[in-house]
Input
Amino acid sequence: MSYFALTDQWVVSSKNVSILVSEPADIKAYEGERYQFAALIARTWFALLEGRSKASIEDLKKDLAGKTLVGEYCGNPDFQHLVKYDETTIFFYALVDVNSEFSCLPPPEAFRVLEKHKLPIVKNYENSLYGKFSNFVELGQKLLDLFNTVATSSIFQDEEGSVVYFLIEKPREFCEFVSDRYLQKSVPIPENWKEREVWWNVSSLGKLKTLGYRILRKLREKLKFFTRVKKGAEDKDKAELSQKKMEEKYGSFEREVKSLVKKNELSKPIEYFFCVAIIAFDYVFKNRKSLRNITIVSEHYIDFLSVIFWCIENKREVTPALMADEQLHKELRGTSW
Output
């Protein structure tokens, strides 16, 4: 999300597609599948701006001119992530200076802008500073500790995981050293380096995922095989072959999960995830010839999982009728896992 001052328009981007809009009515000009996500994000952006004064919006435009807010579009039941959200919104987590060679601005600078304009921010951003390190051994150990902490966190409470930013500290003395020797091309420093005692640059960033997220994502990838099976009647030999393939897919899932988890503790016993997988494989295998019954796996995976969790809790059999029950989906979307 950015602002283009030359035409006084918002720039809304999704992957490699961008649209220019001044107001919600402008979105109609962008038709077709190519603009689908950018248009959805634009509508959500205008919903976030609704009710704001003209002065506050002008101030936001000023802060976003030459910069781009980066966020995650979440909560739309038609485009589901592996995490449940209570509403359709954009959770922002980074701010990029479009004229900078760095990945993004340091997180505190981004969070100050987001807080100032009361925009949705990712969870736990207040505790963004994890540590300051002067040697690689200590950094490596802390990263390992952080990896284990995030990995064993619950997808049911802590969602997908965390974004990790690596920042380089550049004190004024360092900037002066670089400037005096004309090394700026190989060692970038701010042009106005004299204005602060210390500067920070983001050198790189990456994601750490919870094990729960990775397990459920792996399950989805295994199940997708059966959503691609061609429709039509099966003879006995083909049915036996499909049964064998299902057993192979589940077996590989179980082995890969055990290898992934190792001795780490999960938020729920590993057997719980295997139980979910067995029920999921059984449902998809039995309904593999009915596109209507298994489309939910690829298009509404959260709803698919939610019904399975609900059936386990209530000791119910998973059926196509429950998977197609829109009222049940609406009720489950409003509850936590």
In short: The first strand starts at residue 2 and ends at 4. The beta strands are 2-4, 9-14, 17-21, 67-74, 89-97, 161-171, 198-209. The chain has three domains: 1-127, 130-209, 211-333.
